[in-house]
């Protein structure tokens, strides 16, 4: 009886400890540890619904793809470098599609920071519709509570370009850092309200996720009664005839805010469709989803006001004015080369030892 009582007490203690650990930012960091590609199962989220009539890329039995990379068979190289999905699409035809480590075409993988590029698309849609006036608007028009913190001169463009000058610790391994607060925390609006500036806006590029979460709050406020996820459903998921259901992680169940700096959870083929939309300058099979002007602004070189030559409006530019890509931690990528009519999607458990930027640009040359 004594032993049974001790086991029951130990079990109750473990349950209580688990609840305490997962109910605060530090506890969740300790309990869940570093981000991984199953994190979509850990957080609250809002659903996205597949279209009744889905768009499908064409397939071929004669796909063109490299047989080797660095003198290693192509499949083995990808698998050795922790890849779970790899797709090459040329002229809307899948040249290569392979899944590894138990994953398949129906497996969900979090976007991580690829969501930043999707957030940029939605900002463009909101500007097209007049919900947001322009990128030159101060963000305090939408987040007036930041006026007291000196944000009057921070514009939407500064956020898009990562030149806002906000004070934000992007470390992914520091449980007390801002990135952990945003990723594991339960109240993003509260965290945003505490933000400070460390440098003058428009002077220096610094990649920090706080910029994109501020964009998320600007977007939410501009949408009035809609959620960001419902706007994504309306503007992107339904028009692009997505093949699968998906979700966007939020900070909490009640009155949650989408983690716009990360955490769009979807399948590889549907991520590829986002690349196709931008490859075609915002047009989807004859319908303009987001203005061509916005897509061109988002993917062209602009080094004014502290901006850099490899980043534009939440998209990475491996070779400016030639290609662009969305990128997330652990090696999530959607690479696009419009002149080659080429899209590459790589999703992974880790980035591995591969230099993916170089691999993508080298593959593009082969096509």
Features:
alpha+beta; Beta-lactamase; six-stranded mixed sheet; 12 helices; Beta-lactam/transpept-like; CubicO group peptidase, beta-lactamase class C family; Beta-lactam-related; Diverse_Enzym_Activities
Describe this structure in words.
This protein is of the alpha+beta class and 367 residues long. The protein folds into two domains: 2-32; 39-366, DD-peptidase/beta-lactamase superfamily (Beta-lactamase), CATH 3.40.710. 34% of the residues lie in helices and 16% in strands. The chain contains twelve helices and 16 strands. The protein has helices at 2-21, 25-32, 74-80, 114-128, 156-161, 178-184, 188-193, 209-223, 228-237, 268-279, 292-299, 356-366; strands spanning 45-48, 58-59, 68-69, 72-73, 83-90, 93-99, 109-110, 246-249, 264-266, 283-284, 287-288, 311-312, 315-316, 324-328, 332-337, 342-348. A six-stranded mixed beta sheet has the order 2-6-5-16-15-14. A hairpin with a 2-residue loop joins strand 5 and strand 6. The radius of gyration is 21 Å and the shape is globular. It starts with a helix and ends with a helix. The model is unreliable at 15-23 and 25-32 (pLDDT under 50).
């Amino acid at each position: 009886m004594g032993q049974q009582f001790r086991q029951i007490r130990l079990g109750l203690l473990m349950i209580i400890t688990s609840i305490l650990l997962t109910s605060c930012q530090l506890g969740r960091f300790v309990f869940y540890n570093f981000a991984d590609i199953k994190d979509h199962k850990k957080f609250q989220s809002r659903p996205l619904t597949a279209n009744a009539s889905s768009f499908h890329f064409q397939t071929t039995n004669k796909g063109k793809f490299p047989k080797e990379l660095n003198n290693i068979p192509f499949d083995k190289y990808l698998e050795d470098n922790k890849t779970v999905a790899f797709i090459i699409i040329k002229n809307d035809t899948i040249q290569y599609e392979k899944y590894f480590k138990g994953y398949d075409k129906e497996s969900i993988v979090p976007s991580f920071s690829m969501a930043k590029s999707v957030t940029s698309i939605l900002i463009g849609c909101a500007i097209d519709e007049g919900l947001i006036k322009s990128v030159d608007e101060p963000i305090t028009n939408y987040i007036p509570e930041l006026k007291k913190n000196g944000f009057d001169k921070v514009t939407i463009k500064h956020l898009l370009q990562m030149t806002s000058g906000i004070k934000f610790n992007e470390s992914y391994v520091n449980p007390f850092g801002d990135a952990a607060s945003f990723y594991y925390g339960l109240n993003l609006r509260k965290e945003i309200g505490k933000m400070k500036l460390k440098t003058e806006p428009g002077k220096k590029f610094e990649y920090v996720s706080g910029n994109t979460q501020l964009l998320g709050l600007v977007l939410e406020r501009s949408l009035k009664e809609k959620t960001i996820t419902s706007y994504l459903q309306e503007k992107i998921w339904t028009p692009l005839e997505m093949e699968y259901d998906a979700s966007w992680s939020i900070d909490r169940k009640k009155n949650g805010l989408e983690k716009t700096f990360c955490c769009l959870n979807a399948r590889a083929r549907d991520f590829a469709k986002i690349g196709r939309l931008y490859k075609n300058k915002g047009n989807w099979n004859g319908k303009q989803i987001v203005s061509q002007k916005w897509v061109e602004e988002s993917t062209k070189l602009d080094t004014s006001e502290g901006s850099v030559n490899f980043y534009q409006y939440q998209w990475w530019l491996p070779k400016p004015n030639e290609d662009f890509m969305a990128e997330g931690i652990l090696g999530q990528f959607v690479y696009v080369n419009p002149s080659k009519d080429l899209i590459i999607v790589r999703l992974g458990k880790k980035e591995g030892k591969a230099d993916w930027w170089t691999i993508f640009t080298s593959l593009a040359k082969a096509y």
